[in-house]
C-alpha cells in the first residue's frame, strides 16, 4: 500500500513539473527582466490586460501566436480542446479548468481570464498550480487572442 502512495506522489510531482515546464516559457519579459519561474510583477490594471487585438495583419499574427501558445503551453493541462484533460492533468488537484463549461464561461469576465493568463491562478484567488505567463504581459494583443480562444471553446 505504501508503494502505491509513493507512486501516486511521484506521478503528481511529475505532472506538476511538466505543467510548470510547459506553461512557463522561461523567456525574459521586456518590462521586468524577470524569468517566468520568478516572482510575477505587480498585476496590471484589468483594462490594460485584455486590450482588443489590433486590426489587420497584427490581429492575425496575435491569433496565430495565441494558437501556438495554447497548443504548446496550455494543452499540457487543459487539453487539446480545452476540456481540462491534458496529459499533465491526472495528478492535479484541483483539476484544470474545463473551458467547455458554459456556467463557468458565464461567471467570468474577459479581464478575469486575461489576468489568470498573465499572472496565474493565485492572482485571482484560484489555484497557484496555474502558472502565469509573464512574457505575455507586454503583449496584450496575444493575451486578448488567448481570451478569445478560451471563449470559443464554450459549449452550450
Q: Care to describe what's here?
A:
- This protein is an all-alpha fold.
- It has one domain.
- It contains 6 helices and no strands.
- It has helices at 2-23, 46-49, 57-78, 102-107, 110-119, 140-152.
- The termini are far apart.
- Residues 1-53 have low confidence and may be disordered.
Brief descriptors of the model:
mainly alpha, single chain, disordered N terminus
Number of domains: 1
- What is the string of SSEs from the N terminus onward? HHHHHH
Helix content: 40-55%
Mean pLDDT: 77
Q: How far from one another are the termini?
A: 43 Å
Strand content bin = under 5%
Give the radius of gyration.
16 Å
The biggest sheet, with number of strands, parallel, antiparallel or mixed sense and barrel status, is: none
Instruction: Say how many strands there are.
Output: 0
Uncertain segments are: 1-53
User: How many helix segments?
Assistant: 6
- Molecular shape: globular
Helix/strand structural class: mainly alpha
Question: What can be said about this structure in brief?
Answer:
This protein is mostly helical.
